[in-house]
Amino acid sequence: MVILEMNENGHKWEKQNLVTLTSSKGGYDLYVCANCGIKGKSYTPGFIEIAERYRNKAMGCPNCERTKVVRVTKCVAVGKEFEALVPGSLHTVVPPPPGQNNKRGEWVMGATEPVLLLFREFTYVD
Ligand SMILES: [Zn+2]
Description:
Number of domains: 2
Helix content: under 10%
Structural class: mainly beta
Strand content: 35-45%
Largest sheet: 5 strands, antiparallel
Shape: elongated
Number of strands: 11
Bound molecules: zinc ion
Radius of gyration: 21 Å
C-alpha cells in the first residue's frame, strides 16, 4: 500500500463515484488517474491509497505533463531572437509553433517568438 498526497506525483485524479463508498475501513472515494489509469481510494480528503502493484507508477505519473525547463549549454544561432539564450540561462519549453515539431530540439521563447534550441545546445533541468 502506498499513500500519496493527491496533489503530488503528477497524477490527475478524477473521482469515480457520486456517493461515498464504504469498506471495512470506512467511507472512501474511488479515484482514477486520467493520465496513467491507476486507481486509488481516498479515505482522508487530500490523500489517496494505492495498491502495491501500482507502486512504480504511483511514485511518478508516467504520463504527466510536467513543465520542462532547459539550460542552454551553447547556442550557435545568432540574431535578436536568440540574444537571451546565453550559456547557463534557463528557459521554459513551449509547444512547437504550428507546422513545426520537436524532433530536432525543444522550442523556447526567444525575444518575441518561439525559437528552436537543438538537442546539442541545451540540457534538461529537473
Ligand atoms: Zn497518473
